[in-house]
Amino acid sequence: MTTLEVLQGARDLLSSPDRWCKKSIAQDSEGGGCGPHLKKAVRWCALGALVRTIGEKDGWGAEFDSAVKVLSGSDTHGGELVSLFNDKPDTAHGDVVAYFDQAIEREKAK
Questions:
Q1: Residue 92: φ, ψ to 5°
Q2: Is 74 helix (H, G, I), strand (E, B) or coil?
Q3: Is pLDDT of 86 > 70?
Q4: DSSP alpha helices (H): ranges in 1-110?
Q5: Contact criterion met (CB below 8 Å) for 24 and 33
Q6: What angle (nearest 5°) sits at the alpha carbon of residue 96, between those of residues 4 and 38?
Q7: Taking all residues of the chain, what is their mean pLDDT, rounded to a whole number?
Q8: Which residues 6+ apart lie within 8 Å of 1 measured at CB?
Q9: Is the full-model pTM beyond 0.70?
């Protein structure tokens, strides 16, 4: 997958507020934490959505690193920055969707 495809797929996955979560990479229907690649996952944080989009085998590889770099706007500590943004108390679902939209536009402009 290209970086653009990963970003768009993750954004699509998070398109509804009931498919987004904070404080865990993914959640099951009971609100319990789980792996983002598991079938029981129904909600994801921003990072979890990237992993789910890429797939279990390659979820933390080069595709993930590239997407995180574009999403965070940082070459270092990108995952931490994305996670901190997602989990801030005042971050709402619309903020995360806008975060992805901005990253997608940056990637398209390359």
A1: -105, 170
A2: coil
A3: yes
A4: 3-13, 46-54, 62-72, 78-87, 93-108
A5: yes
A6: 75
A7: 93
A8: 9, 53, 54, 63
A9: yes
What pLDDT, on the 0 to 100 scale, is given for residue 75?
72
Residue 6 to residue 71: CA distance in whole angstroms? 11
* Tokens of residue 34, six digits: 């789980």
What's the pLDDT score for residue 76? 67
Query: 103 Cβ partners below 8 Å, 6+ apart?
Result: 7, 67, 70, 71, 73
What is the pLDDT at residue 58? 58
Residues sharing a CB contact under 8 Å with residue 109, sequence separation 6 or more, in sequence order: none
pLDDT tens-place string over residues 1-10: 999 999 999 9
CA distance 3 to 101: 13
Neighbours of 38 (CB within 10 A): 12
